[in-house]
Task: structure prediction
Amino acid sequence: MKANIASARVKSSDVELVEKVVKIKRVAKVVKGGRRFSFSALVVVGDSNGIVGFGLGKANEVTDAISKGVDEAKKNLIKVPILKNSIPHPVMSKFGAAKVLLKPAAAGTGVLAGGAMRAVLESAGIKDVLGKSQGSSNPNNVVRATIDALLSMRSAHEVARTRGVELAKVFNG
Result:
């Protein structure tokens, strides 16, 4: 998995990114004088062409938290294999108590996934996919599980190269 992550990394300066705020939470720190409030923002960035990343930013103001999240997301960009506006094969992933199941879909289906998973898939540029989130609905864990699922996918070219056969043989079985 580590080698797959390293090969999937992308520089943020190479692409034009669009950001989506998945979740903003107000968090409190209890101090002697009462509660001190700050904000936590979960942000997903992508170029709608196979590149996606996520980040978590925390600050005393909402705008600062979002900008920190965007900066963090730009550091964690990955390349996702896309085949005919969908994913190459079904994949399941787990992070914490959040389980994510992704299946390729026929053209025109759309993104059938909810919440945090939808933000990641749309930012990546996947247009037709079936997604199911099971277990925990915690947005942080769902986003991380979705990113892990996208990282574990392999393109047909990659499969052919590792098997040492031609590309046509991969599809023929």
